[in-house]
Write a structure and sequence with these properties.
Elements (H helix, E strand, L loop, with lengths): L12 H16 L4 E11 L4 E10 L4 E15 L2 E11 L41 E5 L7 H19 L7 E12 L15 E9 L4 E9 L5 E7 L3
Pfam family, one: protein_MS5
C-alpha cells in the first residue's frame, strides 16, 4: 500500500467513523450507535482524515455529533497502522473523564514491534510474559462483540484491498485472541482487552474465507495495526 498523493488505502469515511465511535465507547464506557457521516475531509500533507458523524444514545433516545481524527501512523511491508482520536461535539460534561485510567499509561511492551505473520502452530500451549491465547466460541460472544470483530475484520481487509475488491465481512469463523492472562470466569472480557492481538477468520458475501490479524494497543489515542493474510 502506498500514498502517492491520493486518498487511497485509507478506510473510507463510514468505516473511519465507526472505528472512531468504537474507540470512544471503549474509552468512556458508553454505548452510542453509529448513524452516519455528516461530513469529512482529507488532509493529504498530514495523511489525516477528519470525519464528523452522528450517533444515537439509546439510553436517552437522543443523537449527538462526534468529531473523529484518523491518522496514518505507519506502513511497514504488509502492516498498516492507524491512529484514532474521537470526541463529542460539544463534549458532554458527565463524560469528560475516562472510564479506564490505564489509557493514560504507556503502551504495553508486549504489544510493540512487528505484527505476527500468522498464528503460531503451538498457540494452544504457547505462553510468554503472561500472554495467553484464547479461542472464543460464538456462545461466549454478545452481539456487540460480533459487530466489533466484523469491524476489525473489515479494517484488516481494507489494509489489503483499499476498500475495494471484496464485499464486507459478514460471517465470523474462528476467533483467537492473544492478551494478558485472565481467570476463566472472566474469559468473556478477553474481547474487551485494551491490548490484544486478534486472529479473525471470516467469510464475505461471495463465500470467500479470509483472514485478518489486528493488533489493538491502548494509549490515549488508540492504535490499530492490521494485515490481511491468506492462511493462519
Amino acid at each position: 500500500m502506498s500514498f502517492s498523493g491520493y486518498d487511497v488505502g485509507y478506510p473510507k469515511p463510514d468505516l473511519f467513523g465507526r472505528i472512531g465511535l468504537h474507540c470512544y465507547n471503549l474509552k468512556k464506557g458508553t454505548n452510542f450507535l453509529f448513524l452516519g457521516v455528516h461530513r469529512h475531509r482529507y488532509i493529504q500533507t498530514l495523511f489525516l482524515r477528519q470525519v464528523e458523524f452522528e450517533a444515537e444514545d439509546p439510553i436517552r433516545s437522543c443523537t449527538h455529533r462526534f468529531d473523529m481524527h484518523g491518522y496514518y501512523a505507519g506502513k511497514y511491508e504488509d502492516t498498516f497502522t492507524l491512529g484514532t482520536s474521537c470526541s463529542m461535539v460539544p463534549p458532554a460534561p458527565e463524560e469528560e473523564g475516562d472510564v479506564d485510567d490505564s489509557l493514560k499509561g504507556d503502551m504495553d511492551d508486549s504489544f510493540k514491534g512487528d505484527l505476527p505473520d500468522r498464528l503460531p502452530q503451538d498457540w494452544l500451549t504457547a505462553s510468554t510474559n503472561k500472554l495467553q491465547y484464547y479461542e472464543m466460541e460464538e456462545s461466549e460472544m454478545e452481539e456487540d462483540d460480533k459487530e466489533m470483530l466484523r469491524l476489525y475484520a473489515h479494517l484488516a481487509l481494507n489494509s489489503e484491498c483499499h476498500g475495494y475488491g471484496f464485499p464486507k465481512p459478514i460471517e465470523l469463523g474462528k476467533v483467537i485472541v492473544q492478551t494478558r492472562q485472565v481467570v476463566e470466569s472472566e474469559k468473556k472480557m478477553v474481547l474487551k482487552a485494551g491490548n490484544a492481538i486478534f486472529y479473525i477468520s471470516f467469510k464475505n458475501r461471495s463465500g470467500n474465507v479470509l483472514n485478518g490479524i489486528i493488533r489493538k494497543t491502548k494509549k490515549r489515542n488508540k492504535l490499530f495495526s492490521m494485515k490481511f493474510v491468506f492462511l493462519f
